[in-house]
Amino acid sequence: MKNLSVSFLFLLLGIVAVAQPVVRNKENNDPYILRQVDSLKQAYAKEGFIPVKESSMNMESEYEIPVIVPLTAGTWYQIVFIGEPTSKLYEVRMFDWSEKQVAYQKKMWGDVDGNIISYSYIPKISEYHMIRPLQVNKKKKKDLPGYIMLFKKTNAPVKGQ
Q1: What percent of the chain has pLDDT over 70?
Q2: pTM for this structure?
Q3: Does any domain span residue 82?
Q4: Is residue 21 part of a domain?
Q5: What is the pLDDT of residue 143?
Q6: Can you give the residue range of the structural domain that contains 44?
Q7: How far is CA 31 from CA 34, 36, 109, 130, 139, in A?
Q8: Is 124 a domain residue?
Q9: CA distance 124 to 157
Q10: Residue 43 placed within a domain
Q11: For every residue of 25-59, which 3-state class applies, written as one string?
């Protein structure tokens, strides 16, 4: 009887696990954002930055997406977030491993640089950091395109690009 109840429990847990929705990160095909990504990559390359990490993401209005990155002490990083152009608010918060907020940027729709947040950061110690971008859309969309990039400063700017 005990084996039958344990088997029934595993069967029930298997059914519940299969019924859970799967979250998949779709490829960001927004041509406007992709042009901005290409332009920013070229501009930062001219200043001597190389891309370390980049990712497109689908976001939901008013919800942060955590991105965890390892950062090296004394290295100059540039963090860039590009949000959907029709959103009314863009924010990026960054926390160190002890969950202390070390950076915060906020942009509103209509600001000069619009849907792009970009800031420099030089960590004092080598550790993982969490970057949490957020955007608030006027229509409360659940499928907002977003793009995040992490650049690292090299010794010399790239010429001829």
Answers
A1: 78
A2: 0.78
A3: yes
A4: no
A5: 86
A6: 28-153
A7: 5, 9, 19, 27, 20
A8: yes
A9: 24
A10: yes
A11: CCCCCCHHHHHHHHHHHHHHHHCCEEEEEEEEEEE
Q: Tokens standing for 129?
A: 């950091």
C-alpha triplet 124, 130, 136: angle, nearest 5°: 130
Region 80-107 average pLDDT:
95
CA atoms lying within 13 Å on the CB side of residue 80: 27
Q: What is the domain count for the chain?
A: 1
pLDDT at 18: 44
* CA dist., res. 69 & res. 53, Å (int): 8
pLDDT at residue 3, as a whole number: 58
Tokens read off for 32: 């406007």
For 6-37, write each residue's pLDDT tens digit: 455 454 445 444 443 333 445 566 788 999 99
CATH of the domain at 110: 2.60.120.380
**CB atoms < 10 A from the CB of 128, how many?**
11
For 36, left (φ over 0), alpha (ψ -120 to 50), or beta?
Answer: alpha
Contacts of 26 (CB under 8 A, 6+ apart): 58
The per-residue b/e assignment along 85-96, b for 16 or more CB within 10 angstroms, e otherwise, is eebebbbbbbbb
Taking the CA atoms of residue 76, residue 57, residue 92 and residue 94 in that order, the dihedral angle to the nearest 10 degrees is: -60
